[in-house]
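Running this now, will post back.
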Amino acid sequence: MIKKTKHILALGFWFLAFGFSVFAQAPQGINYQAVARDVNGNPIATQTVSLEFKIHQTSSSGTVVYDETYSKTTNQFGLFTAVIGQGTPLTGVFTSITWATNLFWLEVIVNGTSMIPITQLMSVPYSLFSANSGFSNMQVFNASGNFVIPPGVTTIMVEVWGGGGSGGSPSGAGSMSSGGGGGGYGKGTYTVTPSSNYTVTIGAGGSVGALAAAGSAGGTSSFGSLISATGGAGGTTNSAMVVGVGGSSSAPFNISGGTGFTGCTSCSGFALLPHGGVAGNGGAGGSGFANAPGGLGIAPGGGGGGSVGTPPNLGGVGASGRVVVWW
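Update: finished.
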């Protein structure tokens, strides 16, 4: 909180980044979502901001292996989104980044000023690494179905994301609910038999009901009995810093979903609104809005945002999960 407060005083605006999501199929990119606010914590609505994304290798001050620029216009809530890897390149080639063999940090520059801290990219590049892992084919499931192992294939890699929990809905004017948890993420490599048939189940995002009701949990995504990831918990209603817990997976490689955030109406002089949890290595959580319904979770597996204000509004719906099969 202290660092964000310093940014407000020095810059006249600050950014609350809700999370990242990544897609490895062409074209490659990392989804980035944030809200721009002024010194009083009010959204900077319908204004153009100049963005620059730099990816540093080895450390936060390491060599810049990729650098690109964007010009984005915020919406009525100050929200904007960008896809890192699809801007105007200044340095490097995004698809040539060696995610598998190095560590990387993301620097975000807004209107010429670097936002501190420069953040290490922890889970995001793993799906990008998958694209260069030796598997030449993939199938994405955003809805439940079946997968038949192709002829001659004896090894597959499977990624699963659980559904995001929905945001809670406050009961009265001025009360605040929490965002839903993000779905868990799992990845594993498995030995299979050609022509075998596997049931693919996609966990649904948590739905919303009535005011004064907690959000509902996201569903579990699975690939047969080989691998699964649970959904995030629903957000709570009128909670005192109680969060929607993220989902999980017992896969060989796994990342738990992020927790939904309750928010704070008196944090260092500005308000933080109740957003949903980021899915493990997946979609961003939905934004929390004042005097409006909670934002929708971003697929795969982002939790729905909570809500606060007058009149009370429903929380946001969680995003569905996903299964990706590589062979």
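The first strand starts at residue 13 and ends at 23. More later if anyone needs it.
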